[in-house]
Amino acid sequence: MNKYLSFLILSIIVATSSALAQSEWPTSGWTSTTASEVDLNPKVLSTLDADIEQGKYGYVDSMLIIRGGKVAFERYYDRDYNSIYQKEASTPGPLVVRDPTGPYNYFNSWWHPYLQYGKLHTMQSVTKSVVSTVIGIAVGRGDFPDLDTPVLKYFESGSVDNVDDKKRHMTIRHLLTMTTGLEWNEDYPYSDPRNTAATMQVSPDWVQFTIDLPMSTEPGKSFQYNSGATLILGHLFSKATGMDLEEYAVRYLFKPLGIDNFYWKRTPFGLIDTQEGLYVSSRDIAKIAYLYLKQGMWEDKSIIPGAWVDASITPFVSVTDNRSVEYGYSWWLLNYEYKGQERRAFAGIGFGGQYPIVIPELDMVIVFTGWNILAEGPRMSAKEGIKRILEAVSEP
């Protein structure tokens, strides 16, 4: 065999091996590697691990780091939430809603943070990012209306209070981007009864409560975080598609990604809880983040249109005055500095410390879960999580 032919055969083998490696997807489970093999400093990660274990960031339940499509670091932290929140669990208040043994008592360890002491962790408002994903799939399949469709189209005439021109101008896009213009204040801690979301949760019909509110500004003008807006999206989804959003998610998102173990709670009125109701494992919420890292592709098939992914992680509205935090289609955009350059990560963010984070330039997905639900005390923020992981990135 001459040298040229040997080289040619070797090239084909390498190319074939590379193609096979690129076609590996975590549908049946993530492949594991070591931190060092993906240019992460294990000593730096061990320091972060120790800080979490010792309580520097309050109650963190898991840390998962995926780089190059492989799990490079994974830790889970045992917390005795029966003891930690025992007093609060039996004390009436905004976070102990309805039946104190039910799913809306946020101190009830049968329901939070792990579902019935299993591996499924509450995602809280990361659910909103998943809902946006499902809507993007439905848009791509032609099952969902144009985003500039007025919201009131999906409510019977005369069934909504405080209707004015501002409310008539509210569209689906405004719901996705938290720019509804509705009179809503979710800036108070969730333990504070002045938080509009806390008031909503004691009402019988959360969608009706939200859509009935008066308008404070013209839609699309400014960011105002509003959990009720995503509940309205759930209502619109069922009206527009004739299908429950959970069922649609199972068929077109969860099954293709190999997510077969989840729980999605419902509102007291029976609607799927699109604002905070999803429970999945850290590894499975990482799959949805990875889907976005891969521009909506999975096993060489388009699950979400690439245009939807781009629109979702493109700033629609600024959350902070300095634009360090922005918002797309129910995804948070977090600007950070790395090696003297400004970069952008994107994330889902959920009450208590739920953070699936994507750092595109580093081919990285990070997941933190936790249950820091009181206003006081230390906690891990998404930006702090990014900062600490970046400290571990080594030069290849």
Automatic annotation (TrEMBL):
UniProt keyword Hydrolase present: yes
Start and end residues of each Beta-lactamase-related domain: 63-368
Signal peptide: 1-21
InterPro entries linked to this entry: Beta-lactam-related, Beta-lactam/transpept-like, Diverse_Enzym_Activities
GO MF term (any one): hydrolase activity
Assigned keywords, A-Z: Hydrolase, Signal
Xref: Pfam families: Beta-lactamase
UniProt key word Hydrolase: yes
Protein name: Serine hydrolase
Organism: Paraglaciecola chathamensis
